[in-house]
Amino acid sequence: MKLKRLEVLSNEELISINSASLELLSTLGIKIDSPSARKLLKENGAEINDNDLFVKLPEALIKNKLKEVPNFFRLHGPDGNFNFEVNTTSTQYATIGTPVKIYDPSKKSGVRKTILADTINQIRIVDSLKNINCSHIDVWPNDVDYLSLHAHCIYQWVHNTRKPYGLGCLGRLASQDMMNMASIIVGSDDELIKNARFVGFMNPTSPLYLPQLMTNGLEVFAKYKQPTIIAPEALAGATAPVTLAGLLTQINAEIIGGIVLTQLFNSGAPVFFGTVSTITDMRSGNAALGSIETGLITTAIAQLARFYNIPSRGPGGITDSKVLDVQCGFERLQTLLVAAQAGINYITCAGTFEETLVEALELLVIDDELVDIVKRLLEGIDVSEETIGLDVIKKVVSNPKKGVNYLGEAHTRKFMRKELFIPTLIDRNRRSTWRKKGAKDIIASAGQKVEKILESFSPPKVDREIETKLLDYIKTVEKRTLEDYKIAEGISAGNISLPGIDVKVEDK
Amino acid sequence: MVKLVVFNMALEDKLKELIVGWDEDGLKELCSTSIESKEAKPSELLKIIGKVMQFIGKQFEDEEIFLPDLIGSANVVKNTIDEILDPAIRKSGESKETLGRIVIGTVEGDVHSIGKDLVGSFLFSNGFEIYNLGEEVPAASFVDKAEEVGAQIIGLSSLVTMTMGFQREVIKELNSRGLRDKYKVIIGGSPTSSEYADEIGADGWADDAIETVLLVKKLLNLN
Q1: Residue B213: φ, ψ to 5°
Q2: What ipTM describes this predicted complex?
């Protein structure tokens, strides 16, 4: 049978947490500072308080909106050929993080600032990997102006991968740019809406707050039916109760609040029931993403997501280590294993370390192999007449020769690839052979694989007309000022008109 | 001339398919019918099969296929040679071409076969004639077999530290019969080392199957 799912909550406990979260949302509410979002909620029966910006969500509204969320959807690459389904039973693996530095052993500190060339390399590596199916704006191009960074990254996406992409829902203007550029790439808004290309991440701020910029972006993503990840990064003991049950009650309310909003923006908009929540390190006050408690929280979120019949997203392969050491290794496997065993449907953060703040392309290819290991574990043990193999056992054992073995048996050949995971980076040689092959540790072997992938990479072809339109669009974005963004997001008064978006904002 | 090459290619492809697919019955039948119809002489078939095995050996070395793939193909080929090609060669009076004859086995007290069999398969796929005596082979049996088949090399395997000492016994046996200079003795196995080979007076040590081929070629001046 297949490996049994990991669970940390009983049915009664799930119901208790659900009731407590609904009570929180209906009696205390959730803080939403976007006036248009509050208005929409009010029109749909929510009780709003314009002084403290809290919105109380009636239980009936929550229940109805949760029912509108799809339990499966597909994500597509730029040309649509590469695509995969996300649902409540399967598992997909992806990147996500916010690395602003990258592993560089030639530097004394072991890391350096990331630049656009690193962003491109990371997209290319993900494109070439077997198990990691989606990259995002993770590797931050520090050499690109931050106001037009999203446009440059989308340009690099279409030029360097056949897989889907992800971006933060950071504001309506940037999100609308993403949709406009994606529509240029895929041919039309209709095609983009029909076959989603992007994953958007929306992080509620704990405790119980949906900030304006992200709510603005969430609206755009929902309207274009691009799946969004609603994932609080609550820290037990700091931004959530120290008790994991308390944290779960609070983040469950935060996720539900975000999801209700997506369905009001556009009924049937796909979402992930997400988490990157963890604990506070009680010595430093830092987040402890690599902790075992992250696994407990992630497991509970997987169960809650199934309770609501919504695909889940959680972190795996994450570590707090600052170097590629044993801590980096065991924390990444520990978090990955638990997330996969828990049945999280979209496991993210491959290729990162130091709380996802640093990227290592070496870790990215190692994570791809770790996913193979995890997949093998999940397969469990297949028991059938053929796999028990009485015939081959009898044949080999009754061979009168000494030292008989199964290596040359057809049974071995038939099942070896299915039964045994055969690694490419993990070293199982004897010391002498290992030494002869250069005495490499796994980081060095992974580095060679990275080099090989990048050397042989052939970028996808982009139509000349699309190319011209994208470059023109980037020029438009580059002309904007910070003030334009502030107006568009409702932070300053004024009005602004852009392709696909007309914004007029009065004083708050 | 061109015609012959084309014919050989077709036969090689067929043989390769059967060997890679472990189709022992098919391989034996193809060899028999090719010989009967005079499509190919047994020695020609042996040459082509050798080429196919070399290809498979290279694939294993390059990590494109796995251990069972190699061993299974080698088993199928060995049985076909023993049952079809060798008798046919003897009958035709042709002489069998080989890079060298090697007697291998695991020494007395040791039942481990996998590493030794892999070495045998790998040497075989590289064109050597292999006489694999199996496991727990007494010192005298190595020498008897080498004498019988006219071998150039004796290969001794040992996985268990406690049985390493029996490798020395084979060298002692050769010395006592005055045959030490007639054969090159090579050793291998987890607990052994090149220092240990020197210590017991062996002619060479190799640490894996790929190295063994290089070592044997060096000892036989085949490079």
Answers
A1: -60, -45
A2: 0.80
